[in-house]
Amino acid sequence: MTDAAHQVHPVPSRLLNDPKFPKPHVNSFENYEKIYEESIKDPETFWGKKANELLHWHKPFEAVLSGGFEHGDVAWFREGELNASYNCVDRHAYANPDKVAMIYEADEPGNSRHITYGELLHQVCRLANALKALGLKKGDTVAIYMPMVPEAAIAFLACARLGIIHSVVFAGFSSGALRDRINDASSKIVITSDEGRRGGKTIHIKKIVDEALKECPTIEHVLVFRRTGSDVPFSAPRDLWWHEELEKYRPYCPPEIVDAEDPLFLLYTSGSTGKPKGVLHTTAGYLLGAAITLKYVFDYHENDIYGCMADIGWITGHTYIIYGPLVNGGTTVLFESTPMYPTPSRYWEVVAKHKITQFYTAPTAIRLLRRHGNDYVKGHDLSSLRVIGSVGEPINPEAWEWYYEVVGRKECAVVDTYWQTETGSIILTPLPGATPMKPGSATFPFFGIQPVVLDPVSGKELEGNDVEGVLAIKKPWPSLARTVYNDHNRYLKTYLNPYKGYYFTGDGVGRDKDGYYWIRGRVDDVMNVAGHRLSTAEIESALICHQSVAEAAVIGIDDELTGQCVHAFTTLKDDQIADVKELTLQVRNVIGPFAAPKKIYIVNDLPKTRSGKIMRRILRKIVSGESDQLGDLSTLADPSIIPVLIEKVKSS
Length: 652
Ligand code: WT7
What we know:
Blueprint: H1 13-17, H2 29-41, H3 43-54, E1 63-66, E2 75-78, E3 81-82, H4 84-95, E4 100-105, E5 112-116, H5 117-133, E6 141-145, H6 150-162, E7 165-168, H7 175-185, E8 189-193, E9 196-198, E10 201-203, H8 205-212, E11 221-225, E12 239-241, H9 242-247, E13 258-259, E14 263-269, E15 277-282, H10 283-297, E16 305-308, H11 315-327, E17 331-335, H12 346-354, E18 358-361, H13 363-372, E19 387-391, H14 397-407, E20 413-417, E21 451-454, E22 467-473, E23 483-484, H15 488-496, E24 503-511, E25 517-522, E26 526-529, E27 532-535, H16 536-544, E28 549-559, E29 563-572, H17 580-590, E30 599-603, H18 616-623, H19 641-651
Parallel strand pairs: 4-17, 6-7, 6-8, 7-14, 8-11, 11-12, 16-17, 16-18, 18-19, 19-20, 29-30
Antiparallel strand pairs: 1-2, 3-13, 4-5, 9-10, 14-15, 15-23, 21-22, 22-24, 24-25, 26-27, 28-29
């Protein structure tokens, strides 16, 4: 480990002492420890109190927690009733209609739009009325395949208003991936747009949707928002224009009050087997997780402008662009562009322009901008910032230091936040006014979270400090996903059965001598490329679907910029030919451009055990230049292929 990682940075004194800034909600480490202890000693009192403090209930709950990890029957706030859209919109619209809810920063610089809570309520209601008129009702599923426009958030909230389960598909996914997600969820409608704009490029969204819908029997309608106004294929009566539909309806629609445990949304994520899982989040627990973490992890206060740079297609966008900021009545920035467009100053222009107070991005973006140098940061007034966050993958200490010094000018708290699609909200993190930071460590558990380091083999809890193992969580917390859509067994198998009685994260972890947690990365076949979660099995199966491919082995290789990158080895069927370009295209088409392997090696044979299992470990070593440390090869069926593979990798 580098020196930087051992340095402890105290809470920046500006956060605690500058009279211009609001007093942090938690302003000392002792204070954090005290609240944490309480939350662990008596979780029901803690969560019950927070649920009443942060959410509006139409009917009070009768029990805080029932069920547990043992049987996978967790339920929070039973018999309680509420509505997520009411919590995120109505109550703020009535109290403060002119407060800005969303700032849309479009791809083209200089093009931004402010939407107040009053306007948001009108738009959400109109869309909800339109969905109702199309026959949608509570419990139905709607797919959202949208670029980063405010209408995407409006779509989330309109679904929530009616108790409709939204299933957002990241607009970088291919038509095939979209089709599979629509079919798995039996979505009835797709909400989409004509096109998208990102980094000056056009994304042909509607075309991709049309391609997907060739094989989606459950889809009845496509609601198309006009983003660019270009001519796009449109087939009435299936396709409907957003603006024409919304015009028809009045800007009020009563919220459908739902049970605390009714589903709020599905979000597909990659696991260690081929098929993506529809992770299901429920209304009250998820919303409470979003509300409480936004408030404490980012030290959110009344007049803040909160800017999360993620895409709404991932969980980070769900929780920290939409639900978290809005449930707190905050102002959230929707950023449509990239950190590089039109120059590597774009983030900092946006921070200065909108006076962003909390800024949240991913290590891959931080590394990229660091590489472009400090000049792009300097000269922009970043003094509004108090908290800068990182999420999605381990942040290397060098990138952390750059973020802290150059972007934060040593005056901002850096929150390295660890969580997952499944956890719904942040579970390991520093608190801005309280936690001394170590670069590269997600530090300590959030309130109510009981992390444990397990011995991966025995499953025993490793007590004390200075231990390494796998990360699991000991007790349920409200925002943990309840099930995998239509496949509860898979939920049990993936998360609750590997270590009985615990939620298993799939990540390796260390707890250092001071009790700080260090995420080591996935211990399963899941890769993390530029913060995107990809499964080796999913990419392999995409390759195998190519007519010429016989076998495929995919590995994650360390990459300076993207954390990991994808390398693939394939063998071809007899008498078949295929080139690397074609195979790359195959992955782009089946999953999406972001999953494309950086390198594909077409080889004659893959290293296999005598029982036929592909030994990916060997491939990883060869690609990483560690062919001299291949380890135990006794189970390898044909050792003679090793030098051939080494030569192939060298010459590619
Ligand atoms: C996986 C979850 C949760 C938002 C984005 C990713 C990795 C996430 C960190 C962090 C080290 C991290 C883990 C985790 N990860 N945040 N701060 N430090 N690793 O969500 O796509 O569900 O991926 O991302 O490996 O298991 P996701």
